[in-house]
Amino acid sequence: MTVHRILLCGDGLSARMALAALARHLPPSIAILWARAGDQRGSDLFYGNVTGPSAYAFNLTAGLDERRLTLDSTTAFSWGTRYADWGAGRSWMQSFALPFPVIDGVQFHHYLASAGADSIDPFVAGLQAARRGVFVHPPRAGANGAPHPLSRAEYGYQFDAQDYARLFDVPDRVERIGGAVASVEAADGRIAGVTMDDGRVVIADLYVDASGPEAQLLAALAGDRPSGRAIAIATSDLPADDQAPLRTVRVTSSGWESDTPLKGRTRRTVVGAVGEVAGTKATLGRRSLAWAGNCVGVGQAAGVVEPLTPAPMLLLERDIERLLALIPVTGGMAVEAAEYNRRFAEDYDHAALFQQAMFQAGGLPDGPYWQAARAEAVPERLERKLTMFERRGVLVAYDLEPFHPEDWLILHMGMGRRPARYDPLADRAERAQVTPFLSKMARTIEQGVATLPPARVYRAQLEQYLRKAAS
Question: CA–CA distance from 174 to each of 3, 20, 33, 68, 296 (Å)?
Fold first, then answer.
């Protein structure tokens, strides 16, 4: 049996992103049906307010370019997230960046250690630009053809979930199914049909569940539910229009709060333990199977991630890309399901390592949220990452992690972790060579960033240019 019909269930950010991508890439011979299920505005808050750099490429594959994003939404550009007073007065900027240079076979941070440099901050262009509140699209080369000081910087987006979802057009080829889902009929480990509240039964070959944590379709086949910490989230808007290109996260006694500058306002998000924060509730964690039978879950239907980092959006993008790569060509989907589930579990668990590493620190509060976060068992893979960095400066990396070695390096150093020993091969370079090299690199970045315009000014100029180009 060939796959001819796909039914997607959901009406939030994940549904619209998935529909846009599927409709753009699947051949016309595959019909796409859309059952809008429930109000997901509350659960969509758990996607957070910041994407990673991968959003640019993903959006293009889904038919969304930066012209529309800039002119038709409140989305702002982002160099990353500043974590303020994250225990014992610890603060750092978790900036996006391309890999740091490897010089003569030795990773960059070993030269920092050999030279006695205690901070990586001067060598991260996006971090320096974020501190100044300036932004431009990172040029790859300067006027003289040499690498531009920002050439190794990367950027993401700061967004409001509802506003962002609206940008993903649902093409006319998608057949809209009115009404709400009343029940899901399952037999022999597969979905046999979906009954709508008007009595209609919709039958498809493949069912895509983008209905949020309730997983209206997937729950009929994969009965287990996430069993992690329960948290609550609430948001409000503050008047502001500086469009600062960074999100700021602060520790609170009940959890944490973030301020995310957007065009025309700042979105404040408060996250904490259920009972201490009045808002939308969710249980963190993933299902054991994201693809069961003929149903595949994307986004929160498969797992809910705390929006402490860009992880929720990174994982949602990967879910959709993975689905596109594994669309079954026959009714027998066991091979595709097994590979989808393997990669889903790896992606989710590796993203969880990065987030959990942020709680491996002293000086954090002792309320219910923090107690629950610290009570989680530390996986052996995270233990290995922390131990190898602190002992030898080794950045342990697993296959296709959502967070890259440069992300881990910035996190380790931002949280105060330092290697007890560095790679002895770094000593092949004389100190008299290393110190001037590092000084010049830091000075070049500082001078380059000093010439950049404030993010708000750059956005206004970009909008003016785009409108003029379109007229």
Answer: 16, 9, 6, 21, 18
Structure tokens that stand for 13 in this block: 């950010």
Angle between helix 405-414 and 380-392 (nearest 10): 70
Q: How far apart are CA 301 and CA 312, in angstroms?
A: 12
Q: How far is CA 406 from the centre of its chain?
A: 15
Q: What percent of the chain has pLDDT over 70?
A: 99
C-alpha 187/C-alpha 193 separation (Å) is: 9
Helix or strand or coil: residue 268?
strand
DSSP at 453: P
Alpha helix locations (H) across 8-74?
13-25, 54-61, 66-71
Most distant pair of Cα atoms in the chain: their distance: 79
User: Whole-angstrom Cα distance, residue 344 to residue 130?
Assistant: 32
For residues 235 and 229, what is the distance between their CA atoms, to the nearest angstrom?
20
Alpha carbon separation from 370 to 271, 273, 348, 438 (Å, rounded): 11, 9, 21, 38
pLDDT at 384 over 90: yes
Q: Are strands 280-283 and 181-187 parallel, antiparallel or unpaired?
A: unpaired
**Tokens matching residue 458:** 């750059």
Identify the structural domains of the chain with CATH numbers, from first to last: 3-413 (3.50.50.60)
pLDDT in tens, 182-231: 999 999 999 999 999 999 999 999 999 999 999 999 999 987 889 899 99
